Amino acid sequence: MSSTQTEPRPGASAAGSDRYLRFTLNGEMYALNIFNVTEILEHRQLTPVPMMPDFIRGVINLRGRVVPVIDLAIRFGRGVTTIARRTCIIIVRIPTPTATDDDEASESTQDIGVLVDVVNKVVRLADDEIEPAPAFGAGIRADYISGMAKRDDGAGDDFVIVLDVSRVLSIADMVNLQNAVAEAS
User: Fold this and answer.
1) What PROSITE patterns does the record point to (predicted)?
2) CATH number of the domain residue 135 falls in
3) Residue 4 has pLDDT above 90, yes or no
4) Is 62 strand, coil or helix?
5) Which residues form the domain of 135?
């Protein structure tokens, strides 16, 4: 499997897209809005970076750019993703606020790799097919979830957890977490 480009549709917005990339992580089904996904890579060797939180497994060189790779299993407190034949890295582009010379906030973007067990497929989910995020009981922080959708593969009454990628991969949240860990050491 080589990389698969999935550039966002022109004029699409995260709120307006009805396509989601479904993937499995530790036996649970998750989905990301395809608007944020730029490509899917087969697992490759990661370069570890000293003094980073455990969930940042390392970085990859993606066409001359350094891209951090996050292990969602560790981020969600579910152990470490075991590297297997179908392990993938989903490259996600997220907005990152930056300060300008005028101290006004502007937006740039950051590519982040997300390590997952296997990418399943792209599915269409209408807004009315996605239930609101539960306040508890999903096993991960409620603010990481944008909603829950029923699985369409005949697997029973299981749900797909639709992630809010801007919260799960929040750069500010990760920096604050890293600082808290450093202070506690």
Assistant:
1) CHEW
2) 2.40.50.180
3) no
4) strand
5) 4-184
Q: Give pLDDT tens digits for 17-72.
A: 789 999 999 888 999 999 989 999 999 999 998 888 888 999 999 999 899 999 98
* C-alpha torsion 169→135→33→118, nearest 10: 80
Tokens linked to 26: 């530790």
Tokens 């790779």 -> residue: 69
- Pair type for strands 65-71 and 105-116: parallel
CA dihedral for 20, 117, 165, 64, sign (positive or negative)? negative
Task: Measure Cα distances from 158 to 123, 133, 134 in Å.
Answer: 15, 15, 14
Question: Are the C-beta atoms of 59 and 112 separated by less than 8 Å?
Answer: no
What is the rounded distance in angstroms from the CA atom of residue 144 to the CA atom of residue 141?
6
145 and 161 Cβ atoms separated by less than 8 Å: yes
CA–CA distance, 139 with 70 (Å, rounded to integer):
18
What six digits make up the tokens of 6?
Answer: 């999935």
Long-range contacts made by residues 129-135, C-beta under 8 angstroms, separation at least 24? 130/162, 131/159
The encoded tokens of residue 31 equal 């989905």
Number of domains in the chain: 1
